[in-house]
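FAQ: What does the model actually see?

It sees only this:
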Amino acid sequence: MKTPIALAIILSSTVPTSHADNLEKYVEESRAVVMPYMQKLMAENKKAVSENGPGAAINVCKEIAPSMSGDVSRQTGWKLTRVSLKVRNPMLGTPDAWEQKALQNFEKRTAKGEKAETMETAEIVQEPAGKFFRYMKAVALQPGCVTCHGSSEQIPDDVRALLNQEYPHDQATGYALGQIRGGVSIKRPL
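And it is asked to produce this:
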């Protein structure tokens, strides 16, 4: 079953129309990478929390998620990253200009009532380094995420202390269920 997608295509005169014709193919290929990645990450997070408590989720996001992203990037030749407008780890989670625009668009769409779980966007862009297919799948705050990303009242003291230790400049809190937490982004050279 296909989910709705907001597709925007920016084509310059140097972008072959074959790329535009292949946009849906690129989207499907991206979904085939992103969805299993997200499912595996969620499973790792649930396992860590069930075995070692809520604070264990911090290690999953700090160590396991970047390792998984690196593995996918090496296997596909595409850059897969997790980004957010409110970053926890600026070294790995700061969005580029395209990603910022996509995340802002996701937030506008949720404000109009669209479900974050179904949001994605894709585009073919011309950048100084060449042509790229860009894709992002929105990540909505789930019930299990409030322990680390929710309001100050929802974050237990021990988790807050660990977050302060690991991420002294953390901005990734204050979210409510269903809000856009960030996105999983793919940048694929064409």
